[in-house]
Amino acid sequence: MNDERPPTPRNLTCERFAELSLEALEGALPPAEAERFRSHRESCAACRAEFEELSRTWRDLGDLDDREMPTEVVTEVV
Hints:
Blueprint: H1 14-26, H2 31-43, H3 45-63, H4 71-77
């Protein structure tokens, strides 16, 4: 990640982008913050790549079905 621009109310740092990534995936960002997030993602190749990876992981986790896990694994985890 590369923070070339100083943070302002209109843009995000890479660090702040990372902090907001899960909320963005959940669709939980307020509209103004979501726009800042989208703007940073479009302008920062490093953050865009990391967010794409996180998005794939998020989607893959959503595809898991806990009924497929053996009972002994579920018991150990829970």
